[in-house]
Amino acid sequence: MEKRWWRIKVLCGAGLIGCVGLAYILRPGSVALPALPGQMLAVAGGSCTLFHAWLLQTNTQGDSQGDRPGNLVTRGGLFPYLRHPMYAGDALLYAGLALLAPSISSLFLLLLSWFALYKQSQAEDKWLQSLFGERFTQWQQQTW
């Protein structure tokens, strides 16, 4: 599966972390107005991503390289409702980071990361469709 958009998403996340670090270095002791909501979103999003990554890891057994999942995870966590709960967690995490360091740069990185998450989810849907066929189609019709 192509991971170009995933790489862009990761680079945007690193850029947002850099924006937060720079904001606190350049303005030590200052707290931006959206700091508490930003912290809450970042923690909630990061927790969501980590939890669902753990669910995937414990509920799939792929090939020896880990490139092909052995089964389609449709239960547990948010999987019955969202096809990509890890990407939803990333979207919340990145929104929180952008709120912690509000700037044009962080807004640009946030929007680019959201676009990359959307494109990667489309690529992943195609890949999962090719692997699981009708099972994926049924799950896709029941989830967002």
Task: Provide key terms for this protein.
single chain, mainly alpha, 5 helices
Helices and strands in order:
Elements lengths: L3 H23 L8 H25 L25 H16 L3 H29 L1 H9 L2
How would you describe what is shown here?
The protein is mostly helical. The chain has helices at residues 4-26, 35-59, 85-100, 104-132, 134-142. The chain starts with a helix and ends with a helix.
| Overall pLDDT metric | 87
Distance between the termini: 21 Å
What is the gyration radius calculated from CA atoms?
17 Å
Largest sheet: none
Q: Tell how many strands the DSSP assignment holds.
A: 0
- Helix count from the secondary structure assignment: 5
Q: What order do the SSEs take from the amino end to the carboxyl end, as H and E?
A: HHHHH
Percent helix, as a range, is over 70%
Briefly note the structural class of the backbone. mainly alpha
- Beta-strand percent range: under 5%
Unreliable stretches covering 5 or more consecutive residues = none
Q: Which of globular, elongated, flat, extended, rod-shaped describes the shape?
A: elongated
Write a brief structural summary.
The chain has 144 residues and is mostly helical.
